[in-house]
Design brief:
about 240 residues; alpha+beta; 2 domains; two-stranded antiparallel sheet; about 25% strand
Length: about 240
């Protein structure tokens, strides 16, 4: 069956997104080099399909690959404020799904996790913190973003005693030893992550729902800064 489609091109200047890189063997940020858009109708014009054919280049290694992004207006979803949107399906070429365990970056580096677990002190048992980090990496690799937000919230609520504080907000407002960049990271972690996590944990069921995306849990740099300072503080304890 033949389907006529409206074909157009789009200026990709400045556009970036996450794609699986066949050379890096993991998801990395890519610059979009070209976009060809297709719009077609099926089922006697009742269903509209919107498709984007992209040429992308890995910002890390420079490898060029291709991606097909499709949406269908019969699959409308809604975000938290009730605004409708069309979920996207991505298919990447070359396909490296067989090596999917390596596609995603770890949320926390294995070196950080191992060092945290090794820094057992009489005042602070880091076993739970280490396990939270392990589970965060697992949830992130499985695209379990609700779980990621809850685990990040659990981590920031767990660590204040290491800094001689009772709440994470006290670290944000009253901890001076980490420097300006550390304070800025902690402010971002406290404000943005807490907002997303609270929405996931406490929002009751509604007529229309949405789920968190990868971009809503991208607090890797802030968590790494927190863990780095935790390691520094623990190493100073006899």
């Amino acid at each position: 069956m033949k389907h006529d489609a409206d074909i157009s091109t789009q200026d990709p200047s400045g556009m970036k997104d996450w794609f699986p890189c066949p050379e890096c063997r993991r998801e990395t940020t890519h610059s979009v080099l070209s976009i060809v858009n297709s719009r077609r109708f099926e089922e006697d014009g009742l269903v509209q399909f919107l498709e984007n054919y992209l040429t992308v280049r890995c910002d890390g290694c420079g490898t060029i690959s291709f991606s097909h992004v499709s949406r269908c207006d019969a699959e409308v979803d809604y975000n938290e404020d009730g605004t409708p949107f069309l979920p996207k399906r991505k298919q990447h070429y070359p396909d490296i799904q067989a090596d999917s365990a390596n596609i995603q970056d770890a949320f926390v580096s294995e070196a950080r996790v191992e060092e945290i677990e090794s820094l057992q002190k009489e005042q602070f048992d880091t076993t739970k913190l280490g396990q939270l980090l392990v589970e965060l990496n697992r949830a992130y690799s499985e695209h379990s973003y609700f779980t990621c937000l809850m685990l990040i919230r659990a981590i920031v609520d767990h660590v204040p005693p290491i800094f001689k504080k009772t709440k994470f907000s006290e670290i944000v407002n009253n901890y001076a030893d980490g420097g300006k960049s550390f304070r800025e990271s902690m402010k971002h972690l406290d404000a943005s992550c807490r907002k997303f996590a609270d929405g996931s944990l406490h929002c009751q069921i509604r007529s229309k729902e949405s789920v968190p995306t990868r971009h809503q849990v991208e607090f890797k740099a802030d968590i790494d800064a927190l863990l780095g300072e935790i390691i520094r503080v623990l190493k100073q304890i006899p």
